[in-house]
Amino acid sequence: MKLKWSKQPTYKYPFVVRPCYGSDDLLIEFRCDHRSSGFPNMVSFLEENYGISIEPVSEGMVSYAIATDEFITKARCEKGTITITDEGGGLFITAEGRANEIIGDIESILLASGKFERLEVDSSKYT
User: Fold this and answer.
1) SS3 state at 23
2) Does residue 94 lie in a domain region?
3) CA distances from 49 to 12, 38, 40, 85, 127 (A)
4) Which domain of life is it from (predicted)?
């Protein structure tokens, strides 16, 4: 039996906004398979929607990334610096400068796109 849908079901990629371990600064952590074929390229997404500009990565950072199997992208925005870390354990966005303001801006952009949903998290687990 084939079902007919009046509206195609849509999947929204879940993320949380939580404190960095031992800090008051916030980060965004995606709670899905960020390496799946349908997941948006986050660097391109933020270039188009937040106006980030990619910064060159130092040789030391490249060595670290190879040793830890992480892909690290540093980018500049008008309010500071963003780091996008793609590792086996997930995809994370952190910020420096006006960090919590940047994270709030990115959260708003993710939600406005209609492709993402924010999950609630117990912030006390990250202190």
Assistant:
1) coil
2) yes
3) 18, 18, 12, 18, 31
4) Bacteria
> Does 3 reside within a domain?
no
Structure tokens at 15: 């993320």
Determine whether 61 is exposed, middle or buried from the number of CB atoms within 10 Å of its CB (0-12, 13-18, 19+). Answer: middle
Half-sphere exposure (CA, 13 Å, Cβ side) for 102?
Answer: 25
In a domain, 56, yes or no: yes
Q: Tokens 């910064």, residue? A: 55
- What is the block-wise mean pLDDT of the chain (127 residues), using blocks of 10 residues? 50 94 93 90 94 79 63 92 91 96 98 95 84
Instruction: Please count the structural domains in the chain.
Output: 1
* Residue 55, in any domain of the structure: yes
For position 67, what pLDDT does the model report? 59
